C-alpha cells in the first residue's frame, strides 16, 4: 500500500478497541466515547479497583495492566481480542526541576511513557498487519513538540513518543495500518493537577477523546490540541532560539514552566506516582 493510499476503513460499530490507562482522565473519556459509538472496548490500568469500577460505569471490560511489562501488555490484548484500534494512553507526569528529580521518578517516566507505547505497538502490530488493517493512537503531549521547563524528563519521553510514532507509521503504512499521535496541551486530569497554564491552552479529557476517536476516520499522523496551537508550534520550530527563549520568558514559562502547587489533588497524585516509581 502506498503512503498516499487510503487506509482500509474501520467501522466503530463492533470494532475491538483497547485503551491503556483507561481508568481515569483521557483514557476513561476515550473508552467511554468509543463504547458510546458501538465499539467493544477493553480498558487496562494499574489501579485494579478503579479499572473495575470504570469498566462497569462505561460498559467496557476492565483488565489490570502494567504497561512497563510486555507480558502484561500481551495478556491485556489477548483479553481484548483481535484489536482493531489501540490507544496507548497510559502516562505519568511528575513536575519539578530537572536536578531535583529522583532517579527512580525519571526511570518510571521512561518506563511508562516510552516503553508503554513500544510494548503496545510491538504486541498489537503483528495481528493488525496480518489482518491488513488497524489503527494505533499514541497519546503524547504538546511537550513532545516544545521545551517544557518544570517537566524536562517528561518532555523528553514525549519527544521520544512523537519520533517513535512517525517512524513506525512509515514502516507499517503499506500494510494498511495507521499510527497517529495526539499532542494535547494541559488537560484537566489528576495528571495535570496543580499545574497552571492560561485557560486558552487548557483542555478537558473529552476534548482529547473526541480527537482520538475522530482519528479513526482521517488517520492523520499528528494532532496538536487545541488545534490552533499546531500552527504556532510549527512556527516556533523555525524561529531562532533567542526568539523562542524570549517568548517563553514573556509568557512566564521559562522560569515557572509546569511547576505544580501543593493542592490536595496533586498530593494524592504524587502518592500514587510514588507507588509506580517503586516498580521501576
Give the SSE layout.
Blueprint: E1 16-20, H1 25-36, E2 40-45, H2 48-58, E3 61-64, H3 70-80, E4 85-88, H4 103-131, E5 134-139, H5 152-172, E6 177-184, H6 205-218, E7 222-225, H7 228-236, H8 241-250, H9 264-277
Structure in a nutshell:
With 280 residues, the chain is of the alpha/beta class. Helices cover 47% and strands 13% of the residues.
Can you walk me through this structure?
With 280 residues, this protein is α/β, with parallel strands linked by helices. It contains nine helices and seven strands. Strands 3-2-1-4-5-6-7 form a seven-stranded parallel β-sheet, with helices on both faces. The longest helix has 29 residues, at 103-131. Helix content is 47%, strand content 13%. The protein starts with 15 loop residues before the first strand and ends with a helix. Helix 4 (103-131) runs parallel beside helix 5 (152-172).
Amino acid at each position: 500500500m502506498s503512503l498516499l493510499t487510503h487506509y482500509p476503513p474501520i467501522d466503530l460499530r463492533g470494532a475491538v478497541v483497547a485503551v491503556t490507562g483507561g481508568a481515569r482522565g483521557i483514557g476513561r473519556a476515550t473508552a467511554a466515547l468509543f463504547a458510546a459509538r458501538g465499539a467493544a472496548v477493553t480498558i487496562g490500568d494499574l489501579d485494579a479497583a478503579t479499572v473495575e469500577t470504570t469498566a462497569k460505569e462505561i460498559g467496557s471490560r476492565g483488565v489490570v495492566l502494567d504497561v512497563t511489562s510486555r507480558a502484561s501488555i500481551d495478556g491485556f490484548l489477548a483479553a481484548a481480542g483481535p484489536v482493531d484500534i489501540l490507544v496507548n494512553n497510559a502516562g505519568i507526569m511528575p513536575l519539578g526541576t530537572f536536578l531535583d528529580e529522583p532517579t527512580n521518578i525519571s526511570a518510571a517516566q521512561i518506563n511508562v511513557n516510552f516503553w508503554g507505547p513500544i510494548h503496545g505497538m510491538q504486541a498489537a502490530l503483528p495481528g493488525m498487519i496480518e489482518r491488513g488493517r488497524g489503527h494505533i493512537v499514541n497519546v503524547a503531549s504538546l511537550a513532545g513538540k516544545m521545551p517544557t521547563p518544570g517537566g524536562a524528563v517528561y518532555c523528553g519521553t514525549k519527544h521520544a513518543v512523537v519520533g517513535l510514532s512517525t517512524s513506525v507509521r512509515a514502516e507499517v503504512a503499506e500494510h494498511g495500518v495507521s499510527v497517529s499521535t495526539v499532542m494535547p496541551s494541559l488537560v484537566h486530569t489528576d495528571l495535570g493537577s496543580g499545574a497552571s497554564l492560561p485557560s486558552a491552552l487548557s483542555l478537558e479529557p473529552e476534548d482529547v477523546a473526541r480527537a482520538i476517536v475522530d482519528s479513526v476516520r482521517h488517520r492523520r499522523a499528528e494532532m496538536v490540541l487545541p488545534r490552533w496551537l499546531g500552527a504556532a508550534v510549527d512556527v516556533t520550530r523555525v524561529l531562532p532560539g533567542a526568539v523562542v527563549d524570549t517568548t517563553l520568558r514573556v509568557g512566564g514559562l521559562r522560569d515557572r514552566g509546569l511547576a505544580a502547587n501543593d493542592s490536595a489533588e496533586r498530593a494524592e497524585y504524587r502518592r500514587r506516582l510514588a507507588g509506580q516509581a517503586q516498580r521501576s
